[in-house]
Amino acid sequence: MGLLFMGKPLAWEDSMPYLEYIREHGVTQFLNLWDRFKDREGDTLLWGDEVEYMVLSFDADAKNAKLSLRQAEILANLQRAVTDLCTNTLADLASVPTFHPEYGRYMLEATPGSPYTGSVPDLLSVEKNMRYRRKLIRAELMPHEAPVTVTSFPRLGAPGVFTDPFHDPSNAQASHSLFLPDEVTNPHVRFPTLTANIRRRRGSKVAINLPIFFDVNTPRPFIDPTIPYVRNVFPEDPEAMNGAALPDHIYLDAMGFGMGCSCLQITFQACNVDEARRVYDALVPVGPIMLALTAASPAYRGYLSDVDCRWNVIAGSVDDRTEEERGLKPLKHNKHVIPKSRYDSVDLYISKDFNNRPEYNDTLVPYDEDIYKRLTAHGIDTLLSKHVAHLFIRDPLVIFSDAIELDDTVSSDHFENIQSTNWQTLRFKIPPPKSPIGWRVEFRSMEVQITDFENAAFSVFIVLLSRAILSFGLNFYVPISKVDENMQRAQRRGAATQQKFFFRKRIYPADTPPLSHSTPSESPTPSKRSSPAVSSLDIHGRLVDISNGIKVNGHTDGEHVDGHEEPGDVAGHESSSSRDPPLFVAQSRCPSPWVAEHMPVKEEYEEMTMAEIISGKGNEFPGLLGVVNAYLNSLNIEFKSKQRIRAYLALVKRRADGSLQTCATWMREFIRSHPAYKHDSVISEEINFDLMNALDEIARTRVVSDLLPTDYVGSKDDDGCL
Ligand code: ADP
Ligand code: MG
Ligand code: MG
Ligand code: MG
Ligand code: MG
Ligand code: MG
Hints:
The chain is an alpha+beta fold.
C-alpha cells in the first residue's frame, strides 16, 4: 500500500501549495532513476505474488460473520511469530512469509519472504507457500476468527452489525459515508487522509452504482430501503436523494467499498527495461481475460449484484476527478478532461517494438505537456514519456509535512507518490534507488480466489504466460479501446461463459509462417523423459521439433547470453537441484521490423469466447494455454512436475470452458439456494454467515466439485500445513 511515513499528512486544502512541487520533483526523481537504470541488463526472473485476506469473526450464536478489526494486533503478533521462527527453528528470514497492512482494518496482505526464482521447484512451491501463510495467520487468530480470501465482503456497509467490534456509521469523519464507519479503515494517518482528500478533491463523496441482480422477488423498480435518505449529519448526506443513488442499483459512497476489496497480484522482474515494456504490453489485453476468469465478487452491501467483479467498484471508490475533469462542467480550474479514474485499466501501450503500432493507442489519453517536454528533452522516447506524463496528470493525494524537501538523487518518494496512486491493471515498476531490484511488471487485475490451489494456479499460469510471451515473441496487441470494452464485459454476471471478448487472431510474430499449433501433450508416459514431438519456434522464428533435443534445458538455442546467470537458488525456496530446468528465456524474442506488412488493425482481432481465447480456435490461434503448453514442452521438465503444472492449467481451462464455476458463480448459487434466501437479492446475516463459513472450510479441507477439480494434485501431498 505504499510507504507509511510518520509525521503529519496535509489536509487537502493545505496540500495545494505543494502539488506542483511534488510533481516536479517526482519527475526529477524518475529522471534520476532512468539515468541510473536505463542500461541495466541481465536481471533474471524473480517473481512473487501478493494475496489479500479478510479476517472474519464468526458469531455462532447470532449466526453472523463480521469483519474483525484486529489488524494491528494480528500483524504485531505475526511479526513476533516470524521473529520466533527465525530464532527458534533457525529458519532463514527469507523463507518466512512477509505480512503487510492493507487499507481495510480487517485486511492483511501476505507475500513470500523473498521472491521466487525461475526454477520449477519454486513454481511448485507457490501453493505450499500460500498455505503456509494462511496457517501462520490462523495461528495468531482467536478460535472464532478465520483468514478468508474473499474479494468483496457481502455485508460490508449493510444494516446491522458487520464489524467486530461494532461501530456506528454515523460518525465517519473521513469518508462521510452513510454506511461505513471510519473504523473499517486502517487507522494509520495515511488512509483516513487518502479517503478524505479524495472526497475533498472531487468535491463530493464518491458514488458507485452497481446494477442490482433482479431475482424473482426483487421489487421493480428497486428503490433501496436501506439507504438513510433523510440522514442529516454531514453536508453530503442529501447526495443520495439528489441523484447520486440510482434506482435499480446498489449505491456505495465511500473508498472503503473498493479499497476494502481483496485481490491477487503478481510481480515479475524482467532482464532489462525493454523486456519489461514488451511483457507489460502483452499482458494489457490479458488483464480483462483474467478478471473474468477469476471473478469472485457478486455481492455488495447486503445485496446480490448483477456484476461478478470488484473492478468498477474500486475505480469508482477512488475517483477523485472533479466535475470539470469528468466533463460535467467546462474546464475552468482544472487542466484536463480525464476519461478514467486513477484506478482503471491501462491507457497506453509502451513498448518500443515495431509490433506496437500507434493505432493501438486509440483512446483519449490526456498528459501533462510540460512534463512530456521535459522527459523527451532528457532523451526519453515518446512512448515512455507519454506514459509518465499521463500518470502525472494526477495530484499527489497524501503529502507528509516532514517529507516534502527530499534529496532527489537518493529518494523516489515523490515519484512513487504519483505512481503508486495510479492503480492500473498493469504497473510498470521502476527499480528503486539503492536496491538490487530490477525493472518489474505487476499484473493486477485478478480477484483473489477461495483456495490456495486456485490462487497458485492463476499465479503459475500468468508467470508461464509471461515466459511464453518472451520466448516466442508473441503479439497480443489489440486497440486499447477494445481492452477497455473487454474490461466492462469481464465484470458482467457469468462473463467467463456468457461473454465474448476482443482478442488478436494471429499472435505469433508476423515474420514466421502460420503455426499449426500442437495440442498440449496430455499424458507422456512416466518412463519417458522428454516430451512427445511438438513444434515450437526457435528464437529466429523457425519451426523446430523440440522433442529432438534441439532445445536444451530451456535455452532456446542452447547458447548463453552474456550477463545472464542461471537463476540460482534463493534462500527459502526449494532447491532447484532437481533435473527440472529453470523457466529461463535465454534471449527474449523480438520480431524484426522488415518482414511483414501490417494488415488493417480491424482485421487483426475478432470476438472470441473465453474457451477459444484460452484453448484456441481453428488452425491459427493456439489460445493462451496453447502457447503456455508449447513453452512448457520446450523445457525438459520432469514428468511429475509437469503433471502438477498441468493440474493448475486444467483449472484455468475448465474455468474457461464452463465445466468449473468461477468463485462468483459458486457464491451466487450458494446464496440463491440457501434455505433462508427469499429470492429478493438480499443476503441476510445468516446467509452470509453460512457462506463465509463455507469459504473458510473450502480453503481448509472441503472439495466442492462445481468449483474445483476433485482430483487436483499437489495441495495435499506436499505439506502438513493444515
Ligand atoms: P506492492 O504492494 O508495491 O505491489 P509488495 O512488496 O507487496 O509490493 O509485493 C511485491 C511482490 O514482488 C512480492 O511478491 C515480492 O516477493 C515480489 N518481488 C520482490 N522483489 C522482486 C524482484 N526483484 N523481482 C520480482 N518480484 C519481486
Ligand atoms: Mg503489496
Ligand atoms: Mg499493494
Ligand atoms: Mg510494497
Ligand atoms: Mg495489496
Ligand atoms: Mg501489489
